[in-house]
Amino acid sequence: MLDHFSYIITVFLMVSGLYIVMARGNLIKKLIGLSIFQTSVYLLYIVPAKLVGGTAPIISPQFSVYSNPLPHVLILTAIVVGVATMALGLALAVRIREAYGSIEEDEITRLDNAAEQAETR
Amino acid sequence: MSRDLILRVIGKLLIPFILLFAVYVQFHGDFGPGGGFQAGVILAAAIVFYALIFGLENARQVVPDWLVETMLACGVLIYAGVGLAGIFLGGNYLDYFVLDHDAIHGQHRGIFWVEVGVAVTVSGVMLKIFYMFASRGNLNGPEDY
Amino acid sequence: MSLLAHAPALQVVLPLVSAPLAVLLRHRNAAFAVVTAGAWAAFAAAIALWLQVGESGVISYHIGNWAPPWGIEYRVDRLTSFVLLLVSGMASIVLPYSRASIEREIPRELHYLYYAMFGLCLTGLLGMTITGDAFNIFVFLEISSLSTYVLIGLGRDRRALSASYRYLIMGSIGATFIVLGIGFLYLMTGTLNLADMAVRIRDIESSRPVLAALAFLTVGISLKVALFPLHQWLPNAYTYAPSAVTAFLAATATKVSVYVLIRFYFSVFGESLVFAKLPLPEIMLLLSLLGMFAANFIAIFQDNLKRLFAYSSVGQIGYITLGLSFDSFNGLAASIVHLFNHGIAKGAIFLLIGGIVAAGAKAGTGPLPLSFDRLAGLSRRMPLTCFGIVIAGLSLIGVPGTAGFVSKWYLILAAMDKGQWWLVAAILASSLLAVAYVWRFVEAAYFRPAADEVRREAPLSMLLPAWLLVLGSIWFGLDTSVTLGSALDAAQHLIGSKP
What we know:
heterotrimer; A: 121 residues; mainly alpha; Helix Hairpins; B: 145 residues; 73% helix; elongated; disordered C terminus
C-alpha cells in the first residue's frame, strides 16, 4: 500500500478535482477543480520518471544515474497548456461576470432560459 | 501607492537584478537547468512587479501594449523561422544539424534561437494576460464578490 | 521538388506562421490576406500529399531529422491525407466567406484576432491529423481547442460566453482524459510513437493499465467527438458562435476527433483488442443509435434554425460511430466517407445560415433572425440561400444523388453483412427524422406567407463559398472516385483485408 502512495495521491487529486468541477456552481471554483484535476496527471507522469538518487540528465562523469527527461518535458508542455486553459477560463469568467452580472452557474442558466423563452414567444 | 517608500526603493533596487537573472537563466539554459520558458516568466515577473508598485499606467508606458503583442507574435515567428531555416539549408523542419558547419555547433545555434523565441513569446503572453486582467475595473466594488 | 518533400511539415507550419503574422500586421485586411494564404497553401500541401500517398504509399517525415521512435514523426497514410484534404479545404472555403460574415457579427477591432485564432485552430486540427506521436496529438488538440473556445466566445450574444465556458470545462476534461490514457500507454510501452506503440502493445494487450488507457482515451475522445451522452457542449456552442466559426467547426473539429479515435482503435490498440475482447462494439452501437434517434428527434422541436442543425450534427455523429461499431470493412469505409460527406453538407448549411444572419443584420431586423417565425416566406427573399439549404438537407437525409446517400448506402451494406436487418430499418427510420427537421425548414421558408417580398440575398462573397459546398455535396454523390475511393483504400489499410 505504502509503495503506491504516489498513485493514491494521484487518484485522490483526480477524483476530488473532477468532483469539484461537477459539484460546484461557481465558475471560478469549477476552474480550481479543473486545475487540480489536471495536476493529478502531472503527478502520474512525473513519479515513475524520477529515480531515487538520479540527477538531471546532463551528462557528467560524476554521475551515473539520471532521471528520465522525457516525461518532465512532456509535463512542462502540459503545464503550459494548463496555464493557457486557466487564463482563458478566467478571462471568460470575467466576461461572463460583465455580461450577466453573476458567476453562479444556476443564475446564468436561469438568465439563459429566460432569454430563450423571450425569443420563442 | 506613492506613499510606500520602502516598496518603491526596494523595487527600484531589485528590478535590475531580476532582469539580469532572467538573462542568466536564459543563457545558462545550455549548461544547466534553465531556458527560455523560465527566463520569459522571470522577465515578465519583473514588469509585473514594476506594475504592482508604480501602477499599471506607468508599466504600460515602459512596456506598451503594442510591444507586448509584437513580442508574442515575434517569438513564435523566431521559433518557426528556425524550423524553416532547417528546410532552406537542406535538412528537415527544425533540423538543427544543418544550421552550422558541424552538427554540434548546429545544435547549439538551433537551440539558442529556439530558446530566444520561447522567451520572447512567454514573456509577451504573461504580460498580455496580466494587462488584460489588471485593466478590468471592478463593476460594483470589491465587496460585491 | 525539394518543397514537395517537406509538404508534411509545411502542411502544419504555414497556417501556424500565418497566425502570429496576422497579430503582427494588426490590420484586418492584411490579417485576412495572410491567414487565407496560409490556409490555401495548406490546401495545396494537402493535395500534394494526397497525390503522393496515392503513388508511393505511407509518407514518414522526421521532424528535426531525429529518427522515430525517438523523434517526432509526421506520418501520412490514405486516411490522414483524406482528412487533411477535408480540413484544409474547408478552411480555404470558409476564410474568404468569413470576411463579409464577421463584418456583421464581430467588432472590427477584433477582426485580426479572429483571423489569428482561425489560423491557430486550423494548425491544431491539421497537426492532430498528421502527427504520428501520441503526446503531439494532445498538444495540437489543445491548440485547436483553446482557439476554438476563443472563436466561440466572439459570438455577439452573451450566451456565446457561457457556451464557450461550458465547452472549455468539458473539452479540458476530455483532453485531460486523453493525456491520462496516453500516459498509461507511455508507462506501459515506453514509447510515444504510435507505430512503435502498436508493436510493443501486442505483448501486454490485456494488462489492466492498457485497458484503462483504452477506457480513458475512449471517453476523452468521445467528449471531443460529441458522442451522444457527451454532446452537451455542442448545441449552444454551435448556436451562438459566429456563423463562419460554426460552419468550420461543424465540418472539421468533431471529424478530426473521430479520426483520432479511429487512429487509436485501429492503428494502436488493434481491432482484436478493441472489438473482440471488450464489449465496446455493443456500447458504441447503443450510444450511436441513441444519438441517431434522440438527437434527431430533439432537433425536430428546436425553434432556432442553427440549434436545429446543431442537434442534427449530434445525430450524424451517431452514423459515423455506428459505422465504427460494426468493425467491418464496409462499416469503417462508411464512417470515413461520412466524415467527409457530412462535413461538406453541414458546412454548406451553416454557411448559408450565416447568409441569413448577414442579410437580416443588413436589413436591421435585429440579432439572430433564425426563429421559424422570422423565417416565414424566406424563399421569396433569399431563393438561392433557401434552395442551397434544401439541397444540403437532402444530403443529410441521404437522398440518392447526394453525397449523404453514398455513406448511408455503405452503412446499410455493413449492417446487411452482419445480417442485422433491424439495424437497416433503424438507419432508415432515423433518416425519416431527418426528413422531418428538414421539412420544418421547407415548410417555413416555402409555404408560409412572407412578411415582405423584397429580394435581399446574402452578399456574393458569402453565397459563392456556400454554393461551392452545396454543389460539392451533389458532385460527391455522383462521382465517388475521390471520396469513396479514398475511404475504401483507407479502410483496407486499417483493417487489412477486403471482405
